[in-house]
Amino acid sequence: MTDSYSDYLPRSQRLVNAAQRFKDSLTGDASARRFAVDRLLAATGQDFIETVTFGYEEGATSSSIPEATDHGEAFAAALLDVQSANILITAGTALNELGASARDASLDEALQHVSTTRAQLSEPPKESGFEMTPGIESATLGDATKSFERRSGIALDGIVDDAAKTVGGAAAKLVKLDPKIVLEGLGKLGGAFEIGETAGRLIQRGIEKLKRALEAISNLFGDKALAAIKQNISEIWEDFKAGRFTKAILARLFGVAEVEAHIKEILGRPDTSKDRTDAASNALAPLAEDYTRWMKILEALGTGISFAGTALAVFHFAGPWLAMLLAVGYLGVIGGTLLIGIEYTGERGILGWARGVKQISDTLPAS
Predict the structure, then answer these.
(1) Residue 6 — φ and ψ, nearest 5°?
(2) Structure letter (DSSP) for residue 45
(3) What is the pLDDT of residue 251?
């Protein structure tokens, strides 16, 4: 996932520039405002997710599809679409398109969310206890074994801890919705859902973009992957409602105990070497960086979805479908976090996107 959001940074800057120009035009004359609206519509006209190429479509072969884009880039594109939608909706509100004011979700706040995300994705990933540099160079095989055991433990703990934060944030929003809507949303995850027509060019454009982005988020994983963890999503939601949700639940879903047992067995084999064990230890550092990036993107998605809910709640026309839209969005964030966590521990990789902790440990033996 390295540089997976390299396109996000320049594209989001262009979005911020267009939105700021629009904001400044609100105090100007009508012609300046019309020009600023046209520039904002141009900056948000194409769904960013449409620019991403995928190479894992069901039934495709390596010769029939283009090279796959980094999957992290796809999620960064979906995130930018959600943020673009929020800017369009709040820009339309600022123009009083529908005669309502979203006091708790302003254009300034929508812009601030983009700026905050840009800052978070630009900063170096937290080391989470890893000695990123210099690389591990052990004196003996025994030292190398201890280093890998320690670092793999840190990696597994970090995967669970970060996932718990992301899942908890989305689940806390989810439990505020009607349980019937949540159950219906779980059934629609990975599919399409309907929204109504509104008046107002910017607001309508923003709502349509938001809908497409949320549908794309769940579609990015594929039907088979979502089917594999829908029951897990339901269980987490039930546990969270009942106040039973803990990190131990995620550790079980991610197969942490199984991976730890596998590592113990691998480290006890006679055909490991110091160099291979050190190489495996050093391979855990980029894995931690990639996972940190995933969690930043998924957390930002959850924040963007929540903001959209606040921005749209003031409009009476959103009543019939807004809760469903939010449910699908939050469920997508939870499902995505589960799938990524499972992928990075490596116990039962469903997606095949990354080499997890378990797969890295498999490189220790000579055979």
Answers:
(1) -60, -35
(2) S
(3) 95
Query: CA–CA separation, 253 vs 167, rounded Å?
Result: 13
pLDDT at 132: 47
Reply yes or no on whether the pLDDT at 228 is more than 90. no
- Catalogue the E-assigned strands of 279-355: none
Nearest to 363 by CA among 59, 78, 144: 144
* Three-class DSSP labels, 167-193: HHHHHHHHCCCCHHHHHHHHHHCCCCC
CB 175 within 8 A of CB 240: yes
Helices (H), 2-44: 8-25, 30-43
Sign of the four-CA dihedral 298, 303, 308, 310 = positive
Alpha carbon of residue 321 to chain centroid = 23
1 CA to centre of own chain: 12
| CB-based contact 121:9 (threshold 8 Å) | yes
Decide if pLDDT at 72 tops 60: yes
| Residue 365 backbone phi and psi in degrees, to 5 | -70, 160
List, in sequence order, every residue forming a beta bridge with 272; answer none if it has no partner: 365
Q: How many CB atoms lie within 10 A of CB 75?
A: 27
Closest CA to 330 of 177, 194, 226: 177
Structure tokens at 203: 């607001």
Q: Does residue 6 sit in helix, strand or coil?
A: coil
Instruction: Return d(Cα 320, Cα 322) in angstroms, integer.
Output: 6
316-352 pLDDT per residue, tens: 777 778 888 899 899 989 988 998 999 999 988 787 7
Q: What's the pLDDT tens digit per position in 272-304? A: 999 999 999 999 988 888 888 889 999 999 999
